[in-house]
Write a structure and sequence with these properties.
This protein is of the alpha+beta class. It has three domains: about 220 residues, FAD/NAD(P)-binding domain (3-Layer(bba) Sandwich), CATH 3.50.50; about 200 residues, Glutaredoxin (3-Layer(aba) Sandwich), CATH 3.40.30; about 60 residues, Orthogonal Bundle (Arc Repressor Mutant, subunit A), CATH 1.10.10.10. It has 22 helices and 24 strands. The strands form five sheets. The chain has an eight-stranded mixed sheet with strand order 3-5-4-12-13-14-11-15, with helices on both faces. The protein has a six-stranded mixed sheet with strand order 6-2-1-10-17-16. A four-stranded mixed sheet has the order 19-18-20-21, sandwiched between helices. About 0% of the residues have low confidence.
């Protein structure tokens, strides 16, 4: 498209959305002019969070092959507390980058050829020929003719007002003060954490996020009814912050004490409903000009970058401008609508704190890929009630077969994980061949030599489990939050026990593995004390009612209440036979690739990989070693020279 496209593109607004699109179009060989209202490069603003989606878009804007290394700090943990320092949420996040706005703007303008930049051009209006804009007129009297015009002039877009009616902005119910603090000592305590405090009795919050080893960006969000701010001078902003936050922890005061309020900004948080389209004839809007959401989701900058990339790609792909603009709207509208709705939901809970339980408080971060699945879920023809236990060795040996069952029949099968309560205590353990910890050690030692799955018996010597109930209850607590993450958590507990030989009733191990599974630690610990215990008791009651005496037990049921029960160590053929008896039209097994397997499972033993790829163990290990040398997979030597394999992070 770029070879035959002789049109002139005029981008109005030199913020992040505008300059990013101008760079992309220029690098694609198109004729583009960037018009910025300020007399110089716009450096307003303090700092922001950017998701990896935005970072990858930045990488694509460079015509160099080397990876872009941006300043800023990687943030991978979210910690929410009440002003009394009580933890409300504590969880691992997908990595975000906290970057000072000046740094990223400097980076973008270094890429942009200055020959296409025209400053001191505050937009006034368009001149038209028929229905199409042919010239942008600026308040300084200058004009710029063009064929396509892109309005990237921010939340108070003059371009938007030219082509659409003035949007109905929401009332300003929340204001946000944003500043920069210099406090390396405080950053050192939690160098990769987004820290936030939320009031229990009013619409008031305070957060701080490192942007480097020495600096952090901070913000205070407050219900406008809490404080009558007469003017927005540095002294008045400082006075308000200290007054509203006087009952917050000492760390908050330390941040304020290390801030220069001359650099602080006051934002009036507002939004408007999704527009019916982002374009009119040959004029299109991107970034905040097209869609303005409340600042609670930290998505504005990433959305600006994604808009620039998506629209740029479509301009290059489509022959007709109208087709590119329509496709741009269709690709972006559901995603930005979700951001808008989430921002409003968080604002409502922020202002009406008495009606929101701490478990329902939303994490104020969202990615463009988090769009909800709008399609109706497929009806699962078969349900599997799977009774297991975190310390059940047979359940661990069954992992290859179970994982193959899941990966092959996920379209037809719904699995409910139930805890069986294998070891209440050694005094109440019903086992016949195993009666104590020494018996358990000998039994696991024999299993280790008989099976390819690694089983480390050392736990029964160095730190034996007294009961399987603590990790079982922790699993039920994980299920309350997220059923898929709970399964990941159970697997990580299994690996701690069977691979590393560690006691998984240890609270530190439970917390560490829950965090690595993406679970909210603060909520997990609350639920373990009460809700999860009740759910665990329900599992034990159900096991008793269904006469489940051993683990694993697999109870397959179809929608007509036909059922098949399998107990103990099973072959995959036994699973396949049951599935085909319930679903005769079931599809043939799919050929799995290395990528498809590792995209489903974070870690695999050699025998699991062999089983899923239908290879011999020897050939599977040769294939994995070959991919290890290529840097595609990593390996971790574990018990008895056996290996856990994981996909290299750069391949995900």
């Amino acid at each position: 498209m770029s070879k035959t496209d002789n049109r002139k593109y005029v981008v109005i607004g030199g913020g992040i959305a505008g300059v990013s699109l101008a760079i992309k179009l220029h690098l694609s060989g198109l004729n583009v002019v960037l018009c910025e209202r300020d007399k110089n490069i716009p450096l307003r603003g303090n700092a922001f969070l950017m998701h990896s989606d935005g970072l990858s878009t930045l990488q694509s804007l460079s015509d160099k092959n080397e990876e872009i290394i941006l300043p800023g700090k990687t943030i991978d943990t979210f910690l929410l507390k009440k002003p009394d320092d009580r933890e409300v949420k504590y969880l691992k996040m997908e990595p975000w980058q906290c970057i000072k706005r000046k740094d990223i703007v400097d980076h973008l303008y270094k890429i942009l050829p200055h020959s296409i930049l025209k400053c001191d051009r505050a937009f006034s209006h368009f001149e038209y020929k028929g229905k199409k804009a042919i010239k942008a007129v600026f308040k300084n009297g200058e004009t710029e003719s063009g064929d396509v015009f892109i309005g990237a002039d921010g939340a108070r877009s003059t371009v938007r007002e030219q082509i659409f009616e003035h949007p109905n902005y929401s009332p300003v119910e929340v204001r946000e003060v944003v500043g920069i603090a210099n406090n390396p000592k405080l950053i050192e305590e939690k160098p990769t954490t987004f820290n936030k405090y939320l009031s229990s009795d009013k619409g008031l919050s305070f957060g701080f996020i490192p942007t480097s080893e020495t600096e952090m960006v901070w913000f205070m969000q407050y219900d406008v009814r809490l404080y009558n701010l007469e003017n927005e001078s540095a002294e008045d902003l400082k006075k308000m912050c200290y007054e509203l936050l006087k009952h917050f922890p000492e760390n908050v005061k330390k941040v304020l004490d290390s801030s220069d309020f001359k650099d602080a900004y006051l934002w009036h948080a507002r939004d408007f409903d999704i527009l019916p389209t982002f374009h009119k004839n040959n004029v299109v809007l991107i970034g905040d000009a097209a869609h303005l959401a409340l600042p609670f989701t930290s998505a504005g900058t990433t959305n600006a970058l994604i808009d620039a990339k998506v629209l740029g790609d479509l301009i290059l792909e489509k022959q007709q401008t109208a087709a590119a603009f329509k496709a741009f709207y269709n690709k972006r509208v559901d995603i930005v609508r979700e951001h808008l709705e989430l921002g409003r939901e968080i604002k409502d809970s922020f202002l009406n704190h008495n009606y929101v339980s701490i478990d329902d408080i939303k994490v104020p971060l969202i990615t463009h890929q988090s769009i909800k699945n709008k399609t109706a879920p497929k009806y699962k023809k078969v349900n599997l009630l799977y009774f297991t236990d975190p310390i059940c060795s047979t359940c661990w040996l069954m992992q290859p077969q179970l994982r193959k069952l899941i990966i092959e029949y996920s379209d037809y099968l719904e699995i409910d994980y139930c805890m069986g309560g294998l070891l209440p205590s050694w005094e109440n353990y019903p086992g016949k061949t195993i009666r104590n910890k020494d018996d358990a050690y000998k039994y696991w030692e024999s299993l280790s030599s008989d099976f390819a799955m690694p089983i480390n018996p050392d736990v029964w010597k160095k730190d034996p489990l007294m009961s399987s109930f603590p990790p079982s209850i922790a699993f039920k607590a994980a299920q309350i939050q997220d059923r898929e993450k709970a399964i990941v958590f159970l697997r990580r507990l299994n690996e701690q026990l069977f691979v590393k030989g560690n006691n998984i009733s240890n609270n530190e191990i439970i917390i560490d593995e829950a965090y690595e599974s993406g679970l909210d630690i603060a909520r997990l610990l609350r639920d373990i004390k009460e809700k999860a215990k009740e759910l665990f008791e329900e599992d034990l009651k159900l096991a008793s009612e269904l006469y489940v005496k051993s683990m694993p037990t697999f109870i397959f049921t179809d929608r007509f209440d036909n059922s098949v029960v399998l107990k103990g160590l099973q072959s995959f053929d036994a699973f396949a036979k049951v599935m085909k008896s319930f679903v005769p039209e079931i599809a043939d097994l799919k050929k799995q690739t290395l990528k498809s397997i590792f995209n489903k499972y974070d870690s695999l033993t050699s025998i699991e990989y062999a089983f899923l790829r239908d290879l011999s163990l020897e050939n599977a290990e040769k294939e994995l070693e070959k991919n290890y040398k290529k840097g595609i997979v990593d390996k971790k030597k574990v018990f008895d020279e056996r290996i856990l394999w994981v996909l290299n992070k750069t391949e995900r």
